[in-house]
Amino acid sequence: MTAEIVSVGTELLLGQIVDRNAATLGVLFAECGVIHRHRQTVGDNLDRLVEALRFALSRSDLVVTIGGLGPTQDDLTRDGIAAALDDDLVLDEAVVTHLKEVFARRGLAWVESNTRQAMRPRSGSIIPNPNGTAPGLVCRKAGKIVIALPGPVNEFDPMLETSVRSLLEALGGGQVLLSRTLRIAGMGESLVEARLGDLMESQNPTVAPYAKTAEVHLRLTARAVDRIGAIALLDPVEEAIRGRLGDAIYGVDDETLEYAVVTALQKHRATAAVAESCTGGLLGGRLTAVPGSSEVFLGGVIAYANAVKERMLGVPRSILDTDGAVSERCAAAMATGAREAFNSDYALSITGIAGPDGGSDAKPVGLVYLGIATPTGVTVHEQKFRGRRETIRDRAAQYALLLLRRALLERDRRS
Considering Cα of 325, then 329, then 335, then 336, what sign does the dihedral take? Predict the structure, then answer.
Protein backbone atom coordinates (compact mmCIF):
# COMPACT_ATOMS: atom_id res chain seq x y z
CA MET A 1 0.00 0.00 0.00
CA THR A 2 1.60 3.24 -1.18
CA ALA A 3 0.40 6.55 0.20
CA GLU A 4 0.57 10.23 -0.63
CA ILE A 5 -0.32 13.29 1.44
CA VAL A 6 -1.99 16.33 -0.12
CA SER A 7 -2.01 19.27 2.30
CA VAL A 8 -4.54 21.95 1.41
CA GLY A 9 -4.29 25.64 2.28
CA THR A 10 -2.80 28.79 0.81
CA GLU A 11 -1.49 29.67 4.27
CA LEU A 12 0.84 26.66 4.00
CA LEU A 13 2.27 27.88 0.71
CA LEU A 14 2.82 31.36 2.14
CA GLY A 15 4.68 29.94 5.12
CA GLN A 16 2.19 31.37 7.58
CA ILE A 17 1.60 27.91 9.05
CA VAL A 18 4.11 25.08 9.35
CA ASP A 19 2.66 21.77 8.16
CA ARG A 20 3.33 19.70 11.27
CA ASN A 21 0.25 17.56 10.55
CA ALA A 22 1.89 16.01 7.50
CA ALA A 23 4.95 15.10 9.56
CA THR A 24 2.76 13.51 12.24
CA LEU A 25 0.90 11.52 9.60
CA GLY A 26 4.20 10.41 8.05
CA VAL A 27 5.23 8.88 11.37
CA LEU A 28 1.91 7.05 11.61
CA PHE A 29 2.29 5.69 8.08
CA ALA A 30 5.59 4.13 9.10
CA GLU A 31 4.16 2.67 12.30
CA CYS A 32 1.33 1.06 10.33
CA GLY A 33 3.52 -0.31 7.54
CA VAL A 34 2.12 2.02 4.86
CA ILE A 35 4.73 3.09 2.33
CA HIS A 36 4.78 6.88 2.07
CA ARG A 37 6.43 8.00 -1.17
CA HIS A 38 5.08 11.43 -2.10
CA ARG A 39 3.72 14.62 -0.56
CA GLN A 40 2.11 17.70 -2.13
CA THR A 41 0.91 21.07 -0.87
CA VAL A 42 -1.72 22.99 -2.81
CA GLY A 43 -3.51 26.28 -2.20
CA ASP A 44 -7.23 27.01 -1.91
CA ASN A 45 -7.95 26.73 -5.62
CA LEU A 46 -10.33 24.06 -6.91
CA ASP A 47 -8.70 23.49 -10.30
CA ARG A 48 -5.23 23.10 -8.82
CA LEU A 49 -6.55 20.89 -6.03
CA VAL A 50 -8.26 18.55 -8.49
CA GLU A 51 -5.07 18.43 -10.57
CA ALA A 52 -3.01 17.56 -7.50
CA LEU A 53 -5.44 14.86 -6.38
CA ARG A 54 -5.62 13.23 -9.82
CA PHE A 55 -1.83 13.20 -10.01
CA ALA A 56 -1.63 11.65 -6.54
CA LEU A 57 -4.21 9.01 -7.44
CA SER A 58 -2.29 8.14 -10.60
CA ARG A 59 0.75 7.00 -8.62
CA SER A 60 -0.50 6.09 -5.13
CA ASP A 61 -3.02 3.60 -3.72
CA LEU A 62 -3.99 5.84 -0.83
CA VAL A 63 -4.27 9.63 -0.77
CA VAL A 64 -4.80 11.52 2.49
CA THR A 65 -5.81 15.16 2.37
CA ILE A 66 -5.31 17.53 5.30
CA GLY A 67 -7.40 20.68 5.66
CA GLY A 68 -10.12 22.39 3.66
CA LEU A 69 -13.12 20.69 5.30
CA GLY A 70 -14.66 23.73 6.99
CA PRO A 71 -17.94 25.53 6.12
CA THR A 72 -16.59 28.48 4.13
CA GLN A 73 -16.34 28.95 0.39
CA ASP A 74 -12.57 28.40 0.34
CA ASP A 75 -12.95 24.98 2.02
CA LEU A 76 -12.81 23.03 -1.23
CA THR A 77 -11.47 19.61 -0.30
CA ARG A 78 -14.81 17.77 -0.57
CA ASP A 79 -15.43 19.30 -3.99
CA GLY A 80 -11.89 18.46 -5.12
CA ILE A 81 -12.11 14.82 -4.04
CA ALA A 82 -15.47 14.35 -5.75
CA ALA A 83 -14.15 15.81 -9.00
CA ALA A 84 -10.91 13.81 -8.86
CA LEU A 85 -12.90 10.60 -8.35
CA ASP A 86 -15.49 11.54 -11.00
CA ASP A 87 -18.06 11.35 -8.23
CA ASP A 88 -20.92 13.59 -7.22
CA LEU A 89 -21.52 15.26 -3.85
CA VAL A 90 -24.47 14.22 -1.72
CA LEU A 91 -25.86 15.64 1.50
CA ASP A 92 -25.53 13.35 4.51
CA GLU A 93 -28.67 14.04 6.55
CA ALA A 94 -27.29 12.27 9.61
CA VAL A 95 -24.41 14.72 9.70
CA VAL A 96 -26.77 17.67 9.33
CA THR A 97 -28.78 16.45 12.31
CA HIS A 98 -25.60 15.97 14.35
CA LEU A 99 -24.29 19.43 13.47
CA LYS A 100 -27.55 21.11 14.46
CA GLU A 101 -27.47 19.31 17.80
CA VAL A 102 -23.88 20.47 18.39
CA PHE A 103 -24.77 24.08 17.59
CA ALA A 104 -27.80 23.94 19.85
CA ARG A 105 -25.76 22.55 22.77
CA ARG A 106 -23.23 25.33 22.36
CA GLY A 107 -25.89 28.00 22.09
CA LEU A 108 -24.73 28.99 18.60
CA ALA A 109 -26.94 30.25 15.81
CA TRP A 110 -27.31 27.83 12.91
CA VAL A 111 -26.08 29.22 9.59
CA GLU A 112 -27.13 27.40 6.45
CA SER A 113 -23.57 27.42 5.10
CA ASN A 114 -22.72 24.89 7.81
CA THR A 115 -24.45 22.24 5.74
CA ARG A 116 -21.34 22.25 3.51
CA GLN A 117 -19.69 20.20 6.23
CA ALA A 118 -22.33 17.50 5.72
CA MET A 119 -21.55 17.06 2.03
CA ARG A 120 -19.60 14.01 0.95
CA PRO A 121 -18.70 12.24 -2.30
CA ARG A 122 -21.22 9.49 -3.01
CA SER A 123 -18.45 6.89 -2.69
CA GLY A 124 -17.47 8.22 0.73
CA SER A 125 -18.38 7.57 4.33
CA ILE A 126 -17.98 9.74 7.41
CA ILE A 127 -15.12 9.60 9.92
CA PRO A 128 -16.46 11.06 13.19
CA ASN A 129 -14.75 14.18 14.54
CA PRO A 130 -15.49 14.39 18.29
CA ASN A 131 -13.59 17.67 18.68
CA GLY A 132 -14.93 19.72 15.78
CA THR A 133 -17.82 20.22 13.42
CA ALA A 134 -16.09 19.09 10.21
CA PRO A 135 -16.15 15.27 9.94
CA GLY A 136 -13.48 13.38 8.09
CA LEU A 137 -14.11 11.27 5.03
CA VAL A 138 -12.98 7.96 3.60
CA CYS A 139 -13.78 7.34 -0.07
CA ARG A 140 -13.21 4.09 -1.95
CA LYS A 141 -13.55 3.97 -5.72
CA ALA A 142 -11.88 2.14 -8.60
CA GLY A 143 -9.37 0.48 -6.29
CA LYS A 144 -8.24 3.79 -4.80
CA ILE A 145 -8.78 5.18 -1.30
CA VAL A 146 -8.98 8.85 -0.33
CA ILE A 147 -9.07 9.92 3.31
CA ALA A 148 -9.87 13.54 4.16
CA LEU A 149 -8.92 14.96 7.57
CA PRO A 150 -9.46 18.41 9.12
CA GLY A 151 -6.52 20.76 9.61
CA PRO A 152 -6.85 22.03 13.23
CA VAL A 153 -4.39 20.12 15.41
CA ASN A 154 -6.87 19.56 18.25
CA GLU A 155 -9.14 17.76 15.75
CA PHE A 156 -6.49 16.14 13.55
CA ASP A 157 -4.45 14.41 16.26
CA PRO A 158 -7.32 12.64 18.08
CA MET A 159 -8.78 11.38 14.79
CA LEU A 160 -5.36 10.11 13.75
CA GLU A 161 -4.89 8.11 16.93
CA THR A 162 -8.31 6.46 16.81
CA SER A 163 -10.23 5.90 13.59
CA VAL A 164 -7.40 6.64 11.18
CA ARG A 165 -4.81 4.51 12.95
CA SER A 166 -7.16 1.52 12.84
CA LEU A 167 -7.83 2.10 9.16
CA LEU A 168 -4.14 2.43 8.28
CA GLU A 169 -3.20 -0.67 10.27
CA ALA A 170 -5.71 -2.63 8.22
CA LEU A 171 -4.28 -1.20 5.00
CA GLY A 172 -0.65 -1.74 5.99
CA GLY A 173 -0.72 -5.43 5.24
CA GLY A 174 0.38 -6.62 8.66
CA GLN A 175 3.78 -4.90 8.64
CA VAL A 176 5.32 -2.09 10.63
CA LEU A 177 8.10 0.34 9.83
CA LEU A 178 9.99 1.32 12.98
CA SER A 179 12.64 4.03 13.20
CA ARG A 180 15.20 4.83 15.86
CA THR A 181 17.43 7.90 15.86
CA LEU A 182 20.95 7.94 17.31
CA ARG A 183 22.24 11.44 18.13
CA ILE A 184 25.93 12.22 17.67
CA ALA A 185 27.96 15.23 18.76
CA GLY A 186 31.63 16.07 18.30
CA MET A 187 31.97 14.07 15.07
CA GLY A 188 31.24 15.37 11.57
CA GLU A 189 28.91 13.72 9.07
CA SER A 190 31.74 12.69 6.74
CA LEU A 191 33.62 10.89 9.53
CA VAL A 192 30.44 9.19 10.68
CA GLU A 193 29.81 7.97 7.15
CA ALA A 194 33.40 6.79 6.78
CA ARG A 195 33.10 4.62 9.87
CA LEU A 196 29.68 3.25 9.02
CA GLY A 197 29.86 2.93 5.24
CA ASP A 198 29.14 -0.81 5.07
CA LEU A 199 26.20 -0.52 7.50
CA MET A 200 24.66 2.19 5.34
CA GLU A 201 24.43 -0.30 2.49
CA SER A 202 21.97 -2.42 4.45
CA GLN A 203 18.41 -2.56 3.11
CA ASN A 204 16.68 -3.73 6.28
CA PRO A 205 17.38 -2.02 8.57
CA THR A 206 18.45 1.06 6.65
CA VAL A 207 20.96 3.48 8.19
CA ALA A 208 20.90 7.11 7.04
CA PRO A 209 22.81 10.15 8.42
CA TYR A 210 21.31 13.63 8.70
CA ALA A 211 23.39 16.72 9.44
CA LYS A 212 21.91 18.97 12.14
CA THR A 213 23.27 22.13 13.74
CA ALA A 214 26.55 21.06 15.37
CA GLU A 215 25.59 17.39 15.44
CA VAL A 216 24.64 14.40 13.29
CA HIS A 217 21.57 12.19 13.55
CA LEU A 218 21.52 8.58 12.36
CA ARG A 219 18.11 7.20 11.49
CA LEU A 220 17.80 3.43 11.68
CA THR A 221 14.63 2.04 10.07
CA ALA A 222 13.47 -1.57 10.07
CA ARG A 223 10.48 -3.25 8.42
CA ALA A 224 8.97 -6.35 10.04
CA VAL A 225 5.68 -8.09 10.67
CA ASP A 226 5.39 -6.49 14.10
CA ARG A 227 7.13 -4.11 16.47
CA ILE A 228 8.99 -6.88 18.28
CA GLY A 229 10.44 -8.13 15.03
CA ALA A 230 11.50 -4.62 14.02
CA ILE A 231 13.23 -4.07 17.35
CA ALA A 232 15.06 -7.37 16.91
CA LEU A 233 16.45 -6.04 13.63
CA LEU A 234 17.39 -2.61 15.02
CA ASP A 235 19.14 -3.68 18.23
CA PRO A 236 22.20 -5.44 16.72
CA VAL A 237 22.75 -2.62 14.22
CA GLU A 238 22.66 -0.05 17.00
CA GLU A 239 25.13 -2.16 18.99
CA ALA A 240 27.49 -2.27 16.00
CA ILE A 241 27.24 1.51 15.51
CA ARG A 242 27.97 2.16 19.18
CA GLY A 243 31.01 -0.07 18.92
CA ARG A 244 32.39 2.13 16.14
CA LEU A 245 31.34 5.60 17.32
CA GLY A 246 31.59 5.13 21.08
CA ASP A 247 30.88 8.14 23.30
CA ALA A 248 30.14 10.34 20.30
CA ILE A 249 26.59 8.96 20.58
CA TYR A 250 24.96 10.98 23.33
CA GLY A 251 21.27 10.12 22.99
CA VAL A 252 18.46 8.22 21.30
CA ASP A 253 15.34 9.59 19.57
CA ASP A 254 14.23 12.76 21.41
CA GLU A 255 17.06 12.86 23.97
CA THR A 256 18.86 16.21 23.60
CA LEU A 257 22.45 17.02 24.43
CA GLU A 258 21.32 19.12 27.39
CA TYR A 259 19.33 16.13 28.65
CA ALA A 260 22.46 13.97 28.43
CA VAL A 261 24.46 16.60 30.34
CA VAL A 262 21.86 17.02 33.09
CA THR A 263 21.56 13.25 33.44
CA ALA A 264 25.35 12.91 33.76
CA LEU A 265 25.47 15.68 36.37
CA GLN A 266 22.75 13.94 38.35
CA LYS A 267 24.65 10.65 38.14
CA HIS A 268 27.74 12.27 39.66
CA ARG A 269 25.76 14.44 42.08
CA ALA A 270 27.63 17.37 40.57
CA THR A 271 26.52 20.96 39.96
CA ALA A 272 27.09 23.45 37.16
CA ALA A 273 26.82 27.17 36.46
CA VAL A 274 27.26 29.32 33.37
CA ALA A 275 28.65 32.73 32.39
CA GLU A 276 27.41 33.89 28.99
CA SER A 277 28.16 36.88 26.83
CA CYS A 278 27.31 36.46 23.13
CA THR A 279 24.80 33.66 23.75
CA GLY A 280 22.80 35.87 26.12
CA GLY A 281 21.32 33.08 28.26
CA LEU A 282 20.85 30.50 25.50
CA LEU A 283 23.05 27.96 27.26
CA GLY A 284 21.31 28.37 30.60
CA GLY A 285 17.96 28.22 28.85
CA ARG A 286 18.77 24.87 27.28
CA LEU A 287 19.86 23.41 30.61
CA THR A 288 16.80 24.64 32.49
CA ALA A 289 14.52 23.27 29.76
CA VAL A 290 15.34 19.76 31.06
CA PRO A 291 12.95 18.60 33.81
CA GLY A 292 14.86 18.01 37.02
CA SER A 293 17.73 20.34 36.08
CA SER A 294 17.17 22.31 39.30
CA GLU A 295 18.94 19.47 41.11
CA VAL A 296 22.22 20.21 39.33
CA PHE A 297 22.08 23.62 37.62
CA LEU A 298 22.66 26.43 40.09
CA GLY A 299 22.38 29.51 37.87
CA GLY A 300 24.22 31.82 35.54
CA VAL A 301 25.33 35.33 34.72
CA ILE A 302 24.56 37.01 31.40
CA ALA A 303 27.63 39.24 31.32
CA TYR A 304 27.11 41.12 28.08
CA ALA A 305 28.79 44.36 29.14
CA ASN A 306 32.41 44.49 30.23
CA ALA A 307 31.42 46.17 33.47
CA VAL A 308 29.25 43.17 34.34
CA LYS A 309 32.08 40.76 33.53
CA GLU A 310 34.31 42.72 35.86
CA ARG A 311 31.84 43.35 38.69
CA MET A 312 29.91 40.05 38.82
CA LEU A 313 32.47 37.54 37.56
CA GLY A 314 35.68 39.15 38.75
CA VAL A 315 37.27 39.44 35.31
CA PRO A 316 40.33 41.68 35.88
CA ARG A 317 40.19 45.08 34.19
CA SER A 318 43.71 44.45 32.90
CA ILE A 319 42.47 41.48 30.82
CA LEU A 320 39.60 43.49 29.38
CA ASP A 321 41.91 46.39 28.52
CA THR A 322 44.74 44.35 26.99
CA ASP A 323 43.19 41.16 25.59
CA GLY A 324 39.59 42.30 25.22
CA ALA A 325 36.31 40.65 26.17
CA VAL A 326 36.63 38.15 23.32
CA SER A 327 39.80 36.42 24.38
CA GLU A 328 41.14 33.25 25.91
CA ARG A 329 42.04 34.89 29.21
CA CYS A 330 38.62 36.52 29.53
CA ALA A 331 36.84 33.21 28.93
CA ALA A 332 39.01 31.56 31.56
CA ALA A 333 38.31 34.31 34.06
CA MET A 334 34.56 34.17 33.34
CA ALA A 335 34.43 30.41 33.93
CA THR A 336 36.47 30.72 37.13
CA GLY A 337 34.32 33.59 38.33
CA ALA A 338 31.08 31.70 37.70
CA ARG A 339 32.34 28.61 39.49
CA GLU A 340 33.35 30.70 42.51
CA ALA A 341 30.20 32.83 42.50
CA PHE A 342 27.86 29.84 42.50
CA ASN A 343 30.14 27.43 44.37
CA SER A 344 29.53 24.85 41.65
CA ASP A 345 31.58 21.83 40.63
CA TYR A 346 31.65 22.94 36.98
CA ALA A 347 31.18 26.23 35.19
CA LEU A 348 31.00 27.07 31.50
CA SER A 349 31.75 30.41 29.87
CA ILE A 350 31.07 31.75 26.38
CA THR A 351 32.40 34.99 24.92
CA GLY A 352 32.58 35.77 21.22
CA ILE A 353 31.48 37.77 18.21
CA ALA A 354 28.14 36.51 16.89
CA GLY A 355 27.79 39.20 14.23
CA PRO A 356 26.72 40.35 11.81
CA ASP A 357 28.83 43.35 12.88
CA GLY A 358 31.71 43.79 15.29
CA GLY A 359 34.30 41.61 13.61
CA SER A 360 37.80 42.51 12.49
CA ASP A 361 40.74 40.83 10.77
CA ALA A 362 42.15 39.84 14.13
CA LYS A 363 38.81 38.83 15.61
CA PRO A 364 36.36 37.90 12.85
CA VAL A 365 32.66 37.25 13.22
CA GLY A 366 32.23 33.71 14.48
CA LEU A 367 35.26 33.76 16.79
CA VAL A 368 34.16 32.31 20.14
CA TYR A 369 36.10 31.37 23.25
CA LEU A 370 34.56 28.74 25.49
CA GLY A 371 35.86 28.08 28.96
CA ILE A 372 35.20 25.23 31.36
CA ALA A 373 36.20 25.35 35.00
CA THR A 374 36.32 21.97 36.72
CA PRO A 375 37.54 20.72 40.11
CA THR A 376 40.95 20.14 38.49
CA GLY A 377 41.44 23.42 36.62
CA VAL A 378 40.32 25.67 33.76
CA THR A 379 40.66 25.13 30.03
CA VAL A 380 39.62 27.34 27.12
CA HIS A 381 38.71 26.31 23.58
CA GLU A 382 38.87 28.67 20.61
CA GLN A 383 36.33 28.09 17.86
CA LYS A 384 35.55 29.87 14.61
CA PHE A 385 31.93 29.15 13.81
CA ARG A 386 30.36 29.92 10.46
CA GLY A 387 26.86 31.06 9.66
CA ARG A 388 24.40 33.72 10.66
CA ARG A 389 24.14 35.21 14.13
CA GLU A 390 21.56 32.66 15.29
CA THR A 391 23.65 29.77 13.98
CA ILE A 392 26.81 31.00 15.67
CA ARG A 393 25.00 31.37 18.98
CA ASP A 394 23.44 27.91 18.65
CA ARG A 395 26.79 26.33 17.80
CA ALA A 396 28.46 28.05 20.74
CA ALA A 397 25.88 26.77 23.21
CA GLN A 398 26.09 23.30 21.69
CA TYR A 399 29.87 23.23 21.93
CA ALA A 400 29.76 24.37 25.57
CA LEU A 401 27.42 21.50 26.42
CA LEU A 402 29.75 19.14 24.59
CA LEU A 403 32.69 20.36 26.70
CA LEU A 404 30.80 19.66 29.92
CA ARG A 405 29.72 16.23 28.71
CA ARG A 406 33.32 15.36 27.83
CA ALA A 407 34.46 16.44 31.27
CA LEU A 408 31.84 14.23 32.89
CA LEU A 409 32.77 11.28 30.67
CA GLU A 410 36.40 11.75 31.67
CA ARG A 411 35.28 11.67 35.28
CA ASP A 412 33.61 8.33 34.54
CA ARG A 413 36.83 6.96 33.09
CA ARG A 414 38.86 8.05 36.11
CA SER A 415 36.46 6.49 38.61
Answer: negative
